[in-house]
Design brief:
The structure holds 2 protein chains of 2 kinds.
Chain A: H1 7-23, H2 26-31, H3 43-55, H4 73-85, H5 93-106, H6 109-120, E1 126-129, E2 145-149, E3 152-160, E4 170-176, E5 187-193, E6 199-203, E7 214-224, E8 228-229, H7 235-247, H8 253-269, E9 271-272, E10 275-276, H9 281-309, H10 321-340, H11 353-356, H12 361-371, H13 381-392
Parallel strand pairs in A: 1-4
Antiparallel strand pairs in A: 2-3, 3-7, 4-5, 5-8, 6-7, 9-10
Helix pairs in contact in A: 1-4, 4-8, 5-6, 5-7, 8-9, 8-10, 9-10, 10-12
Chain B: H1 7-23, H2 26-34, H3 41-49, H4 68-80, H5 87-101, H6 104-115, E1 121-124, E2 140-144, E3 147-158, E4 165-171, E5 182-188, E6 194-200, E7 206-216, E8 219-221, H7 227-263, E9 265-266, E10 269-270, H8 275-303, H9 309-334, H10 346-358, H11 363-375, H12 382-386
Helix pairs in contact in B: 1-4, 4-7, 5-6, 5-7, 7-8, 7-9, 7-10, 8-9, 9-10, 9-11
The chains are: A alpha+beta, B alpha+beta.
């Protein structure tokens, strides 16, 4: 039992740290609005992703033949940790992390050649078409249908909660190609060009005031059969296998560590009745409580990684990563709001945050409201618990 | 990076698990704790023969030279099996203190006796007013020629009834709550002026109050005033051990509760089919895994003498208290009326976990210390740190 890095791993850590320090120059910092965990589609993200790609590190998790790195799990862990420490976000996941593994695992050679290089180079932006107005946590009940007509599918229906559909070139969709059997069996995996006639996007206003969510409608949209991944009716299996790729950093431990330190420093500087907020034992203990949970989660993640590194199946504890990761993220966002106090509640208008009270209040507010979604998307907390109860505990 | 046990550690684990399997079902355990001193001398002898008592001691005293991981492995199995024999008080506390500060003469004389299973010991540190503050000590030690004479009363001395020798924490100088001026003394339980009054802890294990009335100590352990510094690392190791013991108990109680959910039927269905219970069982599973993760974290940090060790250990002890309370409370609730009975071992596990919470400082206390360490509040946190 040993968690020390080897000399070789320490050297790699230094290399990665230097790389991110160089990547995040003043120009990029400005483009990323200071480098604070932006996940918006914007010029800064594109520039950042292109720099990653130039170094060969846009998609280290991919197989080497498609542009990935032959890294150990520990190296992946170090890479992600150093990236988060530098204050840089992961690449926008829909292309590189979510659809690409399905393409390189189940796609044809033509599909791989057509899509993977453009994802690496940030030329194509992707969005995800899974949820529907009538299919949220019960995703397999989805009804958006694709009917064969010659060598095309005719797609009709709607997808909802589609992040960044407004800027996407492509959407990867789960569609229903068969209604006769078990609901999981009649689902296929389709790649749809967003410029296809009959595809329309309507925005959804959200409580964080950031435009990222949409509804995507398909009205007799004609999609070539060539755009189907793998076999018809196997889409559910493909989509589920994708979750394994998300597991690596799903807990966002490094990001939470950084955010927690930021909140602590904000609280240290915050004065209430002449005393630092950190001297308020209630606040300090809440901060401590979250930190203890985070320290536990950090090692839960290491346990999962260590098991994966040895080629074993991830242990039952891996089912907790998302649930506990988002619980902690939300708690830190709440603390940040509490540090901002009154000022956290002001909407930005003619006066800036710092004129109202605190320059960090606006960020606190956005992180908080956007963060409420984390325990809903990607399998809500309740779904996570259902899955753990069934598959881990055998209930 | 790996979380694997060595071959030797796996062997120790297997051998304790086998012992528990053969000797420690719930009825057998009840007979053991009903014995005088709350444990079986035969079992203890068996522990010695199997070599378990030697594991934490240095090789030069006949030990195995084991580290924190070895201690963890042993204690986790003992906790899982609700084993009542006094490994913590005799080997880890009493033996640990001797090894940390005893003279070579004392070590060479006594440690082999512990390893052979021939000597029971205890660490008498707590007093009625102390609560979790290890420095709040009134027992006085005064020098009388070459010897030290002790006066005071110690309480909740684990294994205090069976212990033939004690290490006593006493004040050789300074005021009641001073960190300085604390010293450790080796005391023979049969010495004139020592009165031990035994009682049971809630889970059937044995403790005692020990009155010291002009007792002449056999030896000073370490130098005068070095008590606080000497016992720190020993208590750290013991805290880790208590956490491992608690983790074993949590695993076992969770397994028992899960089994009950799968077999108990109400309203025509297994109660484990009810989502209200499923989600709570997942929370209990998570509480156990969080404890395991922090235990591994602390054990690796202590093993590597990492700077993160202190923070990890405090976090661990908080989690032991928090998770133990959740798993214990829910374990009773999910067993319904049966959880209230002595027929099942549920209650014994709950009590074991509650004792683990209090040992060396409960969750609230440790969380405050943790907070003082990590938040370094602007105002001096000295008061908390001093403890």
């Amino acid at each position: 039992m040993d968690t020390r890095f080897t000399d070789e791993e320490l050297a790699f850590q230094a290399e990665v740290r230097n790389f991110f320090a160089e990547v995040l120059d003043e120009e990029l910092k400005a483009m990323l609005h200071g480098g604070e965990a932006s996940t918006q589609l914007e010029e800064g993200m594109i520039e950042y992703q292109k720099r990653l790609n130039a170094r060969g590190w846009m998609a280290p998790g991919w197989p080497v033949e498609y542009g990935g790195q032959d890294w150990t799990m520990t190296r992946h862990f170090i890479f992600n940790a150093e990236r988060a420490k530098a204050g840089l976000p992961a690449p926008i996941p829909f292309g590189v992390t979510m659809v690409a593994p399905v393409i390189y695992t189940y796609g044809t050679e033509e599909q791989k050649e057509r899509f993977l290089p453009r994802i690496l180079n940030s030329e194509d932006w992707w969005c995800q078409g899974y949820s529907e107005p009538g299919a949220g946590s019960d995703l397999a009940s989805l009804q958006c249908k694709a009917e064969r007509d010659g060598d095309e599918y005719v797609v009709n229906g709607s997808k909802i909660w589609t992040s960044f559909a407004q800027a996407a070139d492509w959407i990867f969709c789960l569609v229903r190609t068969d209604n006769s059997g078990r609901k999981q069996d009649g689902i296929s995996f389709l790649l749809i060009d967003m410029n296809t006639p009959g595809v329309t996007v309507s925005p959804i206003e959200t409580i964080d005031g950031i435009y990222h969510l949409n509804e995507v409608h398909f009205d007799n949209a004609r999609v070539p059969m060539d755009n189907r991944i793998g076999e018809e009716g196997k889409g559910w299996t493909y989509a589920k296998s994708l979750l394994v790729h998300e597991r690596l950093s799903i807990a966002e431990v490094a990001e939470s560590k950084r955010n927690l330190e930021q909140v602590r420093e904000l609280a240290r500087a915050e004065v209430n009745g002449g005393e630092s907020l950190l001297d308020d034992p209630l606040f300090a203990n809440r901060l401590a409580e979250v930190e203890i949970d985070l320290m536990a989660l950090e090692f839960t993640e290491l346990r999962v990684l260590a098991a994966a590194a040895e080629g074993g199946m991830p242990g039952p504890e891996s089912s907790l990563l998302k649930l506990q990761g988002t619980t902690i993220q939300k708690a830190i966002q709440e603390l940040r709001m509490d540090v901002a106090g009154y000022y956290s509640q002001a909407q930005q208008g003619d006066l800036s945050s710092s004129q109202v009270g605190h320059d960090f209040a606006d960020v606190a507010q956005k992180l908080y409201f956007r963060g409420r979604a984390s325990s809903i998307y990607g399998g809500s907390d309740e779904v996570q618990k259902n899955v753990t109860a069934k598959h881990v505990l055998g209930l | 990076m790996n979380f694997n046990l060595s071959e030797e550690q796996t062997m120790i684990q297997d051998s304790i698990a086998r012992f528990v399997q053969d000797n420690y079902d719930y009825d057998q355990r009840n007979k053991v704790v009903a014995l005088e001193h709350g444990f079986s001398a035969e079992h203890w002898q068996q522990f010695a023969e199997l070599g378990w008592l030697s594991i934490p001691f240095a090789e030069e005293y006949g030990g195995f030279g084991g580290g924190p991981v070895d201690t963890m492995v042993i204690m986790q199995e003992l906790g899982r099996g609700l084993v009542a024999e006094p490994f913590l008080p005799t080997v880890l506390l009493f033996g640990g203190l001797l090894q940390a500060g005893g003279s070579e003469e004392v070590k060479h004389e006594l440690i082999p006796q512990i390893i052979a299973g021939q000597l029971q010991g205890a660490f008498a540190f707590l007093e009625r007013q102390s609560r979790y503050a290890l420095t709040d000590i009134k027992t006085r030690a005064r020098q009388d020629g070459v010897s030290w004479v002790l006066n005071g009363e110690k309480t909740v001395v684990l294994n205090g009834g069976a212990a033939e020798k004690l290490v006593v924490l006493a004040r050789s100088s300074g005021e009641q709550a001073d960190k300085n001026g604390l010293s450790l003394f080796l005391v023979d339980s049969s010495a004139a002026g020592v009165t031990a009054t035994s009682y049971k802890m809630t889970d059937g294990r044995d403790a005692a109050n020990v009155k010291l009335d002009n007792v002449t100590a056999e030896a000073l352990i370490g130098g005068p005033g070095e008590g606080y510094a000497l016992m720190g690392p020993v208590i750290e190791r013991a805290t880790l051990a208590v956490a491992a013991d608690a983790l074993g108990a949590m695993e076992s109680l969770n397994a028992q509760t899960l089994e009950y959910l799968k077999t108990r039927k109400q309203f025509g269905a297994h109660i484990g089919s009810f989502q209200a219970l499923q989600h709570r069982m997942v929370d209990m599973f998570a509480a156990c895994e969080n404890t395991r993760s922090l235990l591994y974290r602390a054990v690796c940090a202590l093993d590597a003498r990492d700077e993160d060790a202190r923070r990890s250990l405090l976090a661990l002890k908080v989690m032991v208290g928090r998770s133990g309370r959740k798993i214990g409370g829910e374990g009773i609730q999910m067993h319904g009326g049966m959880g209230m009975t002595e027929e099942l071992s549920v209650g014994a596990y709950v009590k074991r976990l509650m004792i683990a919470n209090t040992l060396f400082g409960d969750a609230d206390y440790q969380q405050q210390r943790f907070s003082a360490l990590v938040n370094a509040p602007v105002k001096a946190a000295a008061a908390v740190e001093a403890a």
